[in-house]
Amino acid sequence: MSDDWIEISDENINVEEIMQKIRxxxxxxxxxxxxxxxxxxxxxxxxxxxxxxxxxxxxxxxLKGFQIHQRDCDIVPRYYVIDWRIPILGPIHAVIRRxxxxxxxxYLLPSLKKQSSFxxxxxxxxxxxxxxxxxxxxxxEKLQQDQNTGQx
Amino acid sequence: xxxxxxxxxxxxxxxISNQILSLQSLLRRMGYRSEIFCERLPTHFxxxxxxxxxxxxxxxxxxxxxxxxxxxxxxxxxDWLGKVPDRKVIVYHNITPHKYFAGINDVYLEAAQAGxxxxxxxxxxxxxxxxxxxxxxxELAEHGWTxxxxxxxxxxxxxxxxxxxxxxxxxxxxxxxxxxxxxxSPNKRFEDIILTFYYLKRFVRPDARLFxxxxxxxMETYLEFLQALVKRLDLPDVIFTGHVSGPQLMAYYRCxxxxxxxxxxxxFGVPLLESxxxxxxxVAYQAAAVPETLDGSGILVKEKNYAAVAELIGLLAxxxxxxxxxxxxxxxxxxxxxxxxxxxxxEEILGSPSA
Lengths: 152, 355
Description:
Helix content of chain B: 40-55%
Strand content of chain B: 5-15%
Largest sheet of chain A: none
Order of helices and strands of chain A: EHHHHH
CATH topology of the largest domain in chain B: Rossmann fold
Structural class of chain B: alpha/beta
Distance between the termini of chain B: 17 Å
Largest sheet of chain B: 7 strands, parallel
Strand order of the largest sheet of chain B: 3-2-1-4-5-6-7
Number of helices of chain B: 13
Number of strands of chain B: 13
Oligomer: heterodimer
Largest interface: A-B, 34 and 38 residues
CATH class of the largest domain in chain B: Alpha Beta
Order of helices and strands of chain B: EHEEEHEHEHEHEHEHEHEHEHEHHH
Radius of gyration of chain A: 28 Å
CATH superfamily of the largest domain in chain B: Glycogen Phosphorylase B
Distance between the termini of chain A: 54 Å
Shape of chain B: globular
Strand content of chain A: under 5%
Structural class of chain A: mainly alpha
Helix content of chain A: 55-70%
């Protein structure tokens, strides 16, 4: 943490004193928190970002450039909103739709959740296969190079 | 001379539409005839705005047309703007850099990319460029405008004279409440707010709550990531409110102890002004137009040291004197955005939009 990491323009506020207090207090965190960096919330956020957003299965040789994102595996409609813009008719319409939807969801949701969970497991398996495939390709390439150069 | 405004669409409550309405009333007060034109006219806005096809009867080479730009224009609008003989001024509200949408929303990514590319073209067909902030003006200058002018956002306190939602007030009024208001979007770095809150909750104030107020339409993937992060960190008391009504927004500001922004890209930052108005001390990461909007008020953070920011929030909550001084300075800064001040600035730059 640099010495001027916060900026307060009011001359009547003792910024140095505030920084000192913060330094002392954050120093206490170390005694409470785990020494293992992998437990840090920052690491969890990075890993999750990579897993959910940045890391589609994208092995060009394996899947011919087709990407599978984790988000595509979840097929449950979680953000479905029932609304209607015409006044008076709106509430009646919304109630009817809500009742129908509740009934449809009652038997449909378990299947969709099951399918989403299956999709996620398939994605994980495909990811491992893609990684294994890349590793094997590299191995084959290396063996061919060795064969061409006559090395054992 | 008449001064009209154009934006692809207008609605109640969003920052650009509010600015358009505020400018219209300022222009009318100055004696100009001033109307609002749109490409897509929402039904609930009828009477307050007209469709761009009606502009022909208003158009004149002596008129000024303020064309607000925030995400990009359709080919029809670009074509229309090219043909209109009026003295055209781009009012730039900034476009989120497309890199933030990678892996999150391809439509937004492409729209942001295309919108920024349009700036180069627009610099050739408009007489002048205005931005809400120097930050926005710098970008206009990079795209070919000479000497762009700053026209800040108008803050109208009367818009906030709404009775706060009683249910929200009753439920959340006690304790340390950290607030952020803004559309759920990756440039606003919600994950950094959540990480700061993790340290706040674990080491400083276990009773703290975090309110993340804003719609997530089109950002479902990012929202899912944020919700998964909250779950993985086992963080209770993180409340994603989604879109809220006016009274609910007033109530969240009234309940807030500290406003925390970790945003990396803001063209201006209207919620910062709202926090100033409601007397909520601001802790904000120094990025884009945020330092300029605060201009010495609030507390600027130059490094994303989550643990330290959490301690700072704790200090602000416990030290009444510090809090009062910060809030007083913020209120002083807010005066720069009141209609009289911005009106004077508008009059000054309207004298000669490009001079």
